[in-house]
Specification:
The chain is of the alpha+beta class. It has 4 helices and 8 strands. Strands 1, 2, 3, 4, 5, 6, 7 and 8 form an 8-stranded antiparallel beta sheet that branches. InterPro entries: AMMECR1 (IPR023473), AMMECR1_dom_sf (IPR036071), AMMECR1_domain (IPR002733), AMMECR1_N (IPR027485), AmmeMemoSam_A (IPR027623), Uncharacterised_MJ0810 (IPR023472).
Length: 203
Amino acid sequence: MTKLLTLEEGIKAVKLARNAIEVYLKEKKVIDTRYDGVFAEKRGVFVTLRKNKELRGCIGFPYPYKRLDEAIIESAISAATQDPRFRPLSTKELDVVTVEVTILTPPEKIEVDVRKISEQVEIGRHGLLIKRGIFSGLLLPQVAIEFNFDSEEFLSQTCMKAGLPPDCWLMDGTEIYRFEGQIFEEVEPGGEVVEVDMRSCKV
């Protein structure tokens, strides 16, 4: 079973992400900070930036390809500068964006009868990764809560994120994976870091 991070480790993760962004934007340098413990383990991770509670960037690694500290640094810089949906973050925005880090468990393939797939997705607990051919799309657990999706709508939205028809999750040949995410976020820009329990946020 994948070990969860403590709040202290979560705080360290968020501060690492913010520091990586600040140094890169101000000095065009990638920090080489390395930590022991869970940060030396290979983990999937996403870094999300929000401005006035609206999405301002989100990029990460769905699979545990890299050490967690390396993955956080790379994801943070990419979320700030390479998310194709947004212009690169400016140094002036550093004081108005909040940083959120989601640590992922390894994706687990859902292999049940197509009629029971939606029963395997728990809103507030699971994120989704859908693959079909060359297409793939991922939505973090918090997305379903933010938009009040039920499990079927969440599956459909993940299909569309992959550039596929919304009902592709019902088709043979579509691979559906679920994962869990441990979320740590700043309450305000550069401020206190808390762990978010999405299951307690369900409407």
